[in-house]
Amino acid sequence: MRSFKKLDALVAPMDAANVDTDQIIPKQFLKRIERTGYGDVLFYDWRYLDGGEKLNSDFEMNAPRYDGAGILLARDNFGCGSSREHAPWALNDYGVRCVIAPSFADIFYNNCFNNGMLPIVLDTNTVDTLFSEMRATEGYRLVVDVKAGTVTKPDGTSLAFELDDFLRTRLLEGLDQIGLTLQHEDKITAFEKARGL
Q: Could you tell me if residue 1 is inside a domain?
């Protein structure tokens, strides 16, 4: 897993509460086991019309001004619904490394860290302000500093976010669950030898 230390990225909107994982990545696209190839079908039912034949111009995130966004600004309870890990895979494949929202579904929140993504919880008023500023400023970017635990706005204002030290370390060092296990490879090997495995 690649490490996540700092991100300076364009912000895109997902202005809906209770966005579930079936909306993030619909079930018909869950046949693959690779973590790539999902970016084009992220938010499929909202992004496309006519069975995927054309972009839905009424879907705000489709506006050209948000092309290449690396940060998604969302609302309450983002990632609710089923526990599918494909949801962060789709966001990551699209280019999103960070999602900012007032709250997240627990399983989605943890799946983000398993895939090198950062879900940031900020209060509702702050998220409202970010939505307003983003819509008023084309090319609106935020700088996320994982080590410092800050989100810096274009005017230089810094917003602090809380992050468990263990999760922070995992992101900074690029450790998924396999990487964490491999930190103990010598002990695992010694155990297997002692057991005759």
A: no
Question: Confidence band (pLDDT; 50, 70, 90) for 187?
Answer: low
Could you list the residue range(s) of the whole structural domain that residue 128 is in?
6-194
CB-CB contact of 69 with 95 (8 Å): yes
Indicate whether 61 belongs to any domain: yes
Confidence grade of residue 183 (pLDDT, cut at 50, 70, 90): low
pLDDT at 182 over 90: no
CATH number for position 21: 3.20.19.10
Predicted TM-score (pTM) of this structure? 0.89
Query: How many domains does the chain contain in total?
Result: 1
Query: Does residue 191 carry a pLDDT above 90?
Result: no
